Amino acid sequence: HLPKLQCSLHFVHDIRNASLDDGEGLTGEQLVYLRNPLTEPLHIEDPSTEFALSTFIALEHSSESTYAKIRQAAQKAYP
């Protein structure tokens, strides 16, 4: 059990010391957008993009397989 405990403690330590400024992960424009998110609603002009995002959000707690099947059906119906 000791190796699992050490791994867990290391994980907790890493989370406690995580920072957006550690030079790992997001940088540049991505980091700017994370720190300064949009404050107005996003308007999507393309109906296909709107459909894809709405479907993805609706299936948030579904399996990837379910999303893939719906995606295939949509592509078949709307090539």
Report what the structure shows.
The chain has about 80 residues and is mostly helical. About 60% of the residues lie in helices and about 0% in strands.
Topology overview:
Elements (H helix, E strand, L loop, with lengths): L1 H15 L11 H8 L11 H12 L5 H14 L2
Mean pLDDT over all positions: 89
Radius of gyration: 20 Å
Name the beta content range: under 5%
Share of helical residues: 55-70%
The best one-word shape is flat
Please describe the biggest sheet, giving its number of strands, its sense, and whether it closes into a barrel. none
Distance between the termini: 54 Å
What string, H for helix and E for strand, traces the elements in order? HHHH
- The tally of strands reads 0
* Category from helices, strands and their pairing: mainly alpha
Low-pLDDT sequence parts? none
Give the count of helical stretches.
Answer: 4
What's a quick, concise take on this entry?
The protein has 79 residues and is mostly helical.
Features of this protein?
62% helix, 4 helices, mainly alpha, flat, 79 residues
